[in-house]
Design brief:
With 250 residues, this protein is an alpha+beta fold. Helix content is 12%, strand content 22%. It starts with 12 loop residues before the first helix and ends in a 54-residue tail after the last strand.
Protein backbone atom coordinates (compact mmCIF):
# COMPACT_ATOMS: atom_id res chain seq x y z
CA UNK A 1 0.00 0.00 0.00
CA UNK A 2 1.38 3.41 -0.92
CA UNK A 3 1.51 5.95 1.87
CA UNK A 4 2.10 9.64 1.16
CA UNK A 5 3.73 11.67 3.95
CA UNK A 6 1.31 13.76 5.98
CA UNK A 7 1.63 16.96 3.98
CA UNK A 8 -0.73 19.38 2.30
CA UNK A 9 -2.82 17.46 -0.29
CA UNK A 10 -2.22 20.16 -2.89
CA UNK A 11 1.38 18.90 -3.04
CA UNK A 12 0.07 15.65 -4.54
CA UNK A 13 -2.05 16.13 -7.70
CA UNK A 14 -2.93 12.43 -7.83
CA UNK A 15 -4.18 12.61 -4.26
CA UNK A 16 -6.28 15.66 -5.09
CA UNK A 17 -7.83 13.84 -8.06
CA UNK A 18 -8.69 10.94 -5.80
CA UNK A 19 -10.34 13.30 -3.32
CA UNK A 20 -12.50 14.81 -6.07
CA UNK A 21 -13.60 11.33 -7.12
CA UNK A 22 -14.41 10.37 -3.55
CA UNK A 23 -16.47 13.51 -3.07
CA UNK A 24 -18.56 12.54 -6.09
CA UNK A 25 -19.34 9.22 -4.39
CA UNK A 26 -20.16 10.80 -1.03
CA UNK A 27 -23.12 9.23 0.79
CA UNK A 28 -26.24 11.46 0.68
CA UNK A 29 -28.47 12.27 3.66
CA UNK A 30 -30.85 9.48 2.67
CA UNK A 31 -28.08 6.93 3.30
CA UNK A 32 -28.04 7.92 6.98
CA UNK A 33 -31.80 8.29 7.37
CA UNK A 34 -32.35 4.62 8.18
CA UNK A 35 -32.20 2.18 11.08
CA UNK A 36 -28.73 2.00 12.65
CA UNK A 37 -28.52 -1.75 11.98
CA UNK A 38 -28.99 -1.26 8.25
CA UNK A 39 -26.52 1.62 8.11
CA UNK A 40 -23.99 -0.35 10.19
CA UNK A 41 -24.12 -3.22 7.73
CA UNK A 42 -23.84 -1.00 4.66
CA UNK A 43 -20.91 0.93 6.11
CA UNK A 44 -18.81 -2.24 5.85
CA UNK A 45 -16.68 -1.67 2.76
CA UNK A 46 -17.42 2.07 2.62
CA UNK A 47 -14.64 4.66 2.84
CA UNK A 48 -14.22 7.10 5.71
CA UNK A 49 -12.49 10.24 4.39
CA UNK A 50 -11.14 13.13 6.46
CA UNK A 51 -9.81 16.00 4.36
CA UNK A 52 -9.23 19.14 6.45
CA UNK A 53 -7.85 22.09 4.50
CA UNK A 54 -4.64 22.35 6.52
CA UNK A 55 -3.40 18.74 6.55
CA UNK A 56 -3.22 15.68 4.33
CA UNK A 57 -6.24 13.68 3.29
CA UNK A 58 -6.74 10.55 5.36
CA UNK A 59 -8.87 7.66 4.14
CA UNK A 60 -9.69 4.19 5.40
CA UNK A 61 -12.04 1.39 4.40
CA UNK A 62 -14.51 0.58 7.18
CA UNK A 63 -14.40 -3.10 8.19
CA UNK A 64 -16.18 -3.20 11.57
CA UNK A 65 -19.15 -1.34 13.05
CA UNK A 66 -21.70 -1.57 15.85
CA UNK A 67 -25.30 -0.37 15.79
CA UNK A 68 -26.92 1.45 18.71
CA UNK A 69 -30.66 1.80 18.44
CA UNK A 70 -32.02 4.60 20.57
CA UNK A 71 -33.61 4.84 24.04
CA UNK A 72 -34.96 1.28 23.82
CA UNK A 73 -31.43 -0.11 23.52
CA UNK A 74 -29.95 -0.44 27.01
CA UNK A 75 -26.42 -0.17 25.59
CA UNK A 76 -27.10 3.16 23.88
CA UNK A 77 -26.26 6.60 25.28
CA UNK A 78 -29.73 7.75 24.19
CA UNK A 79 -31.11 5.97 27.27
CA UNK A 80 -29.87 8.96 29.29
CA UNK A 81 -32.14 11.32 27.37
CA UNK A 82 -31.05 14.74 26.16
CA UNK A 83 -27.79 15.81 27.83
CA UNK A 84 -24.77 17.85 26.79
CA UNK A 85 -23.13 14.58 25.70
CA UNK A 86 -26.10 13.19 23.76
CA UNK A 87 -27.18 16.40 22.03
CA UNK A 88 -25.49 15.35 18.79
CA UNK A 89 -26.70 11.75 19.07
CA UNK A 90 -30.30 12.92 19.33
CA UNK A 91 -29.86 15.42 16.53
CA UNK A 92 -30.41 15.00 12.78
CA UNK A 93 -28.92 12.15 10.80
CA UNK A 94 -25.75 12.55 8.77
CA UNK A 95 -23.56 14.02 11.52
CA UNK A 96 -20.53 12.77 13.44
CA UNK A 97 -20.98 11.83 17.09
CA UNK A 98 -17.61 11.70 18.86
CA UNK A 99 -17.36 10.92 22.55
CA UNK A 100 -14.69 10.07 25.11
CA UNK A 101 -14.68 6.65 26.76
CA UNK A 102 -12.67 5.51 29.79
CA UNK A 103 -11.32 9.05 30.01
CA UNK A 104 -8.79 8.41 27.24
CA UNK A 105 -10.24 7.04 23.97
CA UNK A 106 -12.28 9.10 21.54
CA UNK A 107 -14.78 7.15 19.46
CA UNK A 108 -16.23 8.15 16.09
CA UNK A 109 -19.88 7.43 15.36
CA UNK A 110 -22.32 8.19 12.57
CA UNK A 111 -25.74 9.55 13.60
CA UNK A 112 -28.53 7.94 11.61
CA UNK A 113 -32.28 7.37 11.56
CA UNK A 114 -33.67 10.82 12.18
CA UNK A 115 -33.69 13.66 14.67
CA UNK A 116 -34.71 12.56 18.14
CA UNK A 117 -34.36 8.83 17.44
CA UNK A 118 -30.94 8.44 19.04
CA UNK A 119 -29.64 5.88 16.54
CA UNK A 120 -25.96 5.80 15.65
CA UNK A 121 -23.24 3.53 14.32
CA UNK A 122 -19.86 3.18 15.99
CA UNK A 123 -16.99 2.72 13.55
CA UNK A 124 -14.92 0.10 15.39
CA UNK A 125 -12.20 -0.66 12.84
CA UNK A 126 -10.96 0.26 9.38
CA UNK A 127 -8.28 -0.66 6.86
CA UNK A 128 -5.81 2.18 6.12
CA UNK A 129 -6.00 3.41 2.53
CA UNK A 130 -4.27 6.78 2.43
CA UNK A 131 -2.03 8.73 4.84
CA UNK A 132 -2.80 6.51 7.82
CA UNK A 133 0.35 5.10 9.39
CA UNK A 134 -1.07 3.11 12.30
CA UNK A 135 -3.48 0.20 12.54
CA UNK A 136 -7.12 1.11 13.03
CA UNK A 137 -8.29 -2.15 14.61
CA UNK A 138 -10.31 -0.77 17.51
CA UNK A 139 -12.61 2.23 18.02
CA UNK A 140 -10.05 4.34 19.90
CA UNK A 141 -7.28 3.46 17.46
CA UNK A 142 -9.56 4.17 14.52
CA UNK A 143 -10.52 7.68 15.63
CA UNK A 144 -6.95 8.52 16.66
CA UNK A 145 -5.39 7.19 13.46
CA UNK A 146 -7.86 9.15 11.35
CA UNK A 147 -7.16 12.34 13.32
CA UNK A 148 -10.74 12.54 14.62
CA UNK A 149 -11.44 14.05 18.04
CA UNK A 150 -14.32 15.60 19.94
CA UNK A 151 -13.63 18.72 17.88
CA UNK A 152 -15.48 16.87 15.09
CA UNK A 153 -18.50 16.08 17.28
CA UNK A 154 -21.53 17.42 15.43
CA UNK A 155 -19.67 17.84 12.13
CA UNK A 156 -21.78 17.29 9.03
CA UNK A 157 -20.95 14.19 7.00
CA UNK A 158 -22.49 15.83 3.94
CA UNK A 159 -19.75 18.45 3.49
CA UNK A 160 -16.31 18.27 1.87
CA UNK A 161 -14.15 17.82 4.96
CA UNK A 162 -15.44 14.66 6.66
CA UNK A 163 -17.59 12.20 4.77
CA UNK A 164 -18.42 8.61 3.84
CA UNK A 165 -17.99 7.21 0.33
CA UNK A 166 -20.53 4.50 -0.42
CA UNK A 167 -19.11 1.10 -1.27
CA UNK A 168 -19.20 -0.01 -4.90
CA UNK A 169 -19.71 -3.70 -4.21
CA UNK A 170 -21.30 -5.55 -1.28
CA UNK A 171 -18.98 -6.99 1.36
CA UNK A 172 -19.39 -10.36 3.05
CA UNK A 173 -20.73 -9.26 6.43
CA UNK A 174 -20.92 -11.39 9.56
CA UNK A 175 -22.49 -10.45 12.88
CA UNK A 176 -21.72 -10.96 16.56
CA UNK A 177 -22.97 -9.40 19.77
CA UNK A 178 -21.43 -6.03 20.59
CA UNK A 179 -18.23 -5.51 22.59
CA UNK A 180 -17.96 -4.22 26.15
CA UNK A 181 -21.67 -3.70 26.83
CA UNK A 182 -22.44 -6.56 29.24
CA UNK A 183 -23.90 -3.96 31.64
CA UNK A 184 -26.86 -3.72 29.22
CA UNK A 185 -28.02 -7.21 30.14
CA UNK A 186 -29.78 -9.20 27.44
CA UNK A 187 -29.45 -6.27 25.02
CA UNK A 188 -25.73 -7.09 24.94
CA UNK A 189 -26.54 -10.33 23.13
CA UNK A 190 -28.15 -8.61 20.16
CA UNK A 191 -26.05 -9.42 17.03
CA UNK A 192 -25.42 -5.77 16.21
CA UNK A 193 -21.67 -5.87 15.63
CA UNK A 194 -20.88 -6.12 11.91
CA UNK A 195 -17.57 -7.28 10.44
CA UNK A 196 -15.99 -7.78 7.05
CA UNK A 197 -15.56 -11.56 7.06
CA UNK A 198 -12.45 -11.36 4.89
CA UNK A 199 -10.59 -8.49 6.55
CA UNK A 200 -7.47 -8.84 8.70
CA UNK A 201 -8.06 -5.33 10.08
CA UNK A 202 -11.01 -6.06 12.37
CA UNK A 203 -10.54 -5.78 16.13
CA UNK A 204 -9.80 -8.87 18.21
CA UNK A 205 -11.58 -8.48 21.55
CA UNK A 206 -11.50 -11.23 24.15
CA UNK A 207 -14.52 -13.56 23.80
CA UNK A 208 -15.49 -12.71 27.38
CA UNK A 209 -15.99 -9.07 26.31
CA UNK A 210 -18.36 -9.94 23.48
CA UNK A 211 -22.01 -9.77 24.48
CA UNK A 212 -22.45 -11.49 27.84
CA UNK A 213 -19.31 -13.53 27.30
CA UNK A 214 -21.11 -16.46 25.71
CA UNK A 215 -19.98 -18.29 22.58
CA UNK A 216 -19.44 -15.94 19.63
CA UNK A 217 -22.26 -16.23 17.12
CA UNK A 218 -20.26 -15.64 13.96
CA UNK A 219 -21.89 -15.86 10.58
CA UNK A 220 -25.37 -14.87 11.68
CA UNK A 221 -27.40 -12.82 9.25
CA UNK A 222 -30.44 -11.35 11.04
CA UNK A 223 -33.73 -11.10 9.16
CA UNK A 224 -33.55 -7.32 8.91
CA UNK A 225 -30.40 -7.67 6.79
CA UNK A 226 -31.57 -10.45 4.49
CA UNK A 227 -32.57 -8.12 1.67
CA UNK A 228 -30.59 -4.95 2.29
CA UNK A 229 -27.10 -6.23 3.11
CA UNK A 230 -26.63 -7.55 -0.40
CA UNK A 231 -27.91 -4.43 -2.11
CA UNK A 232 -25.85 -1.37 -2.94
CA UNK A 233 -25.93 1.54 -0.52
CA UNK A 234 -27.09 3.77 -3.33
CA UNK A 235 -30.63 2.48 -2.91
CA UNK A 236 -30.75 4.40 0.34
CA UNK A 237 -34.01 6.21 -0.02
CA UNK A 238 -35.77 3.97 2.52
CA UNK A 239 -36.50 5.31 5.99
CA UNK A 240 -35.70 4.15 9.56
CA UNK A 241 -33.94 5.19 12.87
CA UNK A 242 -30.32 6.35 14.67
CA UNK A 243 -27.14 5.78 18.11
CA UNK A 244 -23.56 4.40 18.89
CA UNK A 245 -20.62 2.94 21.07
CA UNK A 246 -17.12 1.54 21.49
CA UNK A 247 -15.62 -0.94 23.88
CA UNK A 248 -18.24 0.83 25.91
CA UNK A 249 -21.47 2.11 24.44
CA UNK A 250 -23.03 4.92 22.51
Amino acid sequence: MRMFPLENPSDHPIESDRLRAWRRGRAPRSFFGRDARIVASELIGALLVYAPASTAIRAARIVETEAYCGPGDAACHACAGLTKRTRTLLGPEGHAYVFLVYGMHECFNVVCGGEGQGHAVLVRAAEPILNVIHRLDGPGKCARGMGLTRAQDGASLLDNELFIVERNTPSKVICTPRVGVAYAGEAAEQPWRFLDAESSHVSRPSPRNIGLGKTQQLGRTPNYLSSSSSSSSSSSSSNSSSSSSSSSSS
